[in-house]
Amino acid sequence: MSVKNRLLRLLILSVLISVLLPACAGIRMRTQAPYVSLSDLQVREIGLFEQRYRLKLRIQNPNSFALPISGMNYQLHINGKKFAGGVSRQPVTIPAFGEALADVDVISDVGSLLQQFSGLTSGHVQKVSYRLSGSISLAHSVLKLPFEYKGEVDLNFGSPESTH
Fold first, then answer.
1. Residue 126: helix, strand or coil by DSSP?
2. pTM metric for this prediction
3. Cross-strand pairs, 51
């Protein structure tokens, strides 16, 4: 094979790579963040300085392809104040246009607990608002997908209201 043919093949290969790589990256850039909502909250452990809770998160995938989640971080705010936070490296794959439940732990400190408790015992609180926020890491990717979910619990009726 002549030097000319080798250079021509190398040039064609370089052009193909430079065209295909950005196209692949563009596919990932159009990934829509999943909808993450709070499905349940349970007390796991109460200590003098820390409290541990188990959150059940409902994760819905609005994409036409599966989302392989490798981990996530999250914070729970109650009545506008940070209450608890945590991280999870529990892998879960959310099917295309599907959903899954994930159990994750959050930890609060005694200050956050007392702050919330004092607000609830004042007798003036009729609704508790909460916000769950964080980001999801996808397997084999540096892409992080942020999420935020807001809701309210009516203390008079106990029926949750929520918004994305």
1. coil
2. 0.71
3. 46, 108
